[in-house]
Automatic annotation (TrEMBL):
<comment type="function">
    <text>Catalyzes the removal of a penultimate prolyl residue from the N-termini of peptides.</text>
</comment>
<feature type="domain" description="Peptidase M24">
    <location>
        <begin position="120"/>
        <end position="345"/>
    </location>
</feature>
<dbReference type="InterPro" id="IPR050422">
    <property type="entry name" value="X-Pro_aminopeptidase_P"/>
</dbReference>
<dbReference type="InterPro" id="IPR000994">
    <property type="entry name" value="Pept_M24"/>
</dbReference>
<dbReference type="GO" id="GO:0070006">
    <property type="term" value="F:metalloaminopeptidase activity"/>
</dbReference>
<dbReference type="InterPro" id="IPR033740">
    <property type="entry name" value="Pept_M24B"/>
</dbReference>
<keyword id="KW-0645">Protease</keyword>
<dbReference type="GO" id="GO:0006508">
    <property type="term" value="P:proteolysis"/>
</dbReference>
<dbReference type="GO" id="GO:0046872">
    <property type="term" value="F:metal ion binding"/>
</dbReference>
<dbReference type="InterPro" id="IPR036005">
    <property type="entry name" value="Creatinase/aminopeptidase-like"/>
</dbReference>
<keyword id="KW-0479">Metal-binding</keyword>
<dbReference type="GO" id="GO:0005737">
    <property type="term" value="C:cytoplasm"/>
</dbReference>
<dbReference type="Pfam" id="PF16189">
    <property type="entry name" value="Creatinase_N_2"/>
</dbReference>
<dbReference type="Pfam" id="PF00557">
    <property type="entry name" value="Peptidase_M24"/>
</dbReference>
<keyword id="KW-0464">Manganese</keyword>
<keyword id="KW-0031">Aminopeptidase</keyword>
<keyword id="KW-0378">Hydrolase</keyword>
Amino acid sequence: MPIYLQLYLSIPYNPVFFSFATITPTTTELYVDADKLTPEVTAHLGQDVVIKPYDAIYADAKALSETRKQEAGETASKFLLSNKASWALSLSLGGEGQVEEVRSPIGDAKAVKNDVELAGMRACHIRDGAALTEYFAWLENELVNKKSTLDEVDAADKLEQIRSKHDLFVGLSFDTISSTGPNGAVIHYKPEKGSCSIIDPNAIYLCDSGAQYLDGTTDVTRTFHFGQPTELEKKAFTLVLKGVIGLDTAVFPKGTSGFALDVLARQYLWKEGLDYLHGTGHGIGSYLGPIGVGTRVQYTEVPIAPGNIISDGMLLWPCPVRICLLTTAEPGFYEDGKFGIRIESKPSSDTDSHPNPILTCRNRCYHGA
């Protein structure tokens, strides 16, 4: 039963809410604060889902544990609990000896995109690419032709306005990183009205942004210079771009670790004695969070399997073997106090036509910008 919940006030930029749920063959119980549910959602859930207070999960979990002990005694098997679950929930189920922490298969299943999700992600990225193209054209015209004075927040607000005109737009997927000059060297820079910088057309402008659409989530970074870049800036941009292409066009044996793929993005910078201090990739949700569960590309030894979502943030965890998984690839270069460069694309892992077990990065979500 699909449930569409617009609850950005609960978790900013994410169409989800804090909750627990218990599902049996005959019952479904949702533990959530009542004020998080709109009348429309409550009506949609109807009689199929029992709504309980969020904190009631602990008492119910304890009761479940005690009932199980009474019925099975010492032979009762352990509860399998996600290693991301809280200690309070673990204690409610009996704690050590009664609980075995495991990696939840739910996250890995979410990392694998089905055909509908992949189609939606491609469609929303086309619309988002059109919005970004319009935005950067507007920004260049304002800065270069009109000589307008715009600060970083002014620009970010304009980008949101342009995106909002497109079909199925819900909101942003995270705070827009609209950064000029030295601010671009701050990897997770957040401009604030009143303290942010005026955009300098003679400095590098880095924009990392994304949106939530009903058919998918976007997260894209582009770097521009509206004047004459220095030789160092041009060289750094070229090295980063070569890294993006290296990862986007990768062909590799099944079981390859993220460590190996990470090298493809960093190799050109490394040859010049340069590097960047963040991961190369991360998974991305489908109308969920902009950083989703999936395989990451970085200095780790987690094998990559067909259907893994490769991201440019870190090494992704292994996912169920499926083709066409969506990821990001975003190498960068940052000169402290001067400028930052980052380019972000979205390759996906897929099987290759080669007779041997080979994977390849393809089926990308293209942006027009």
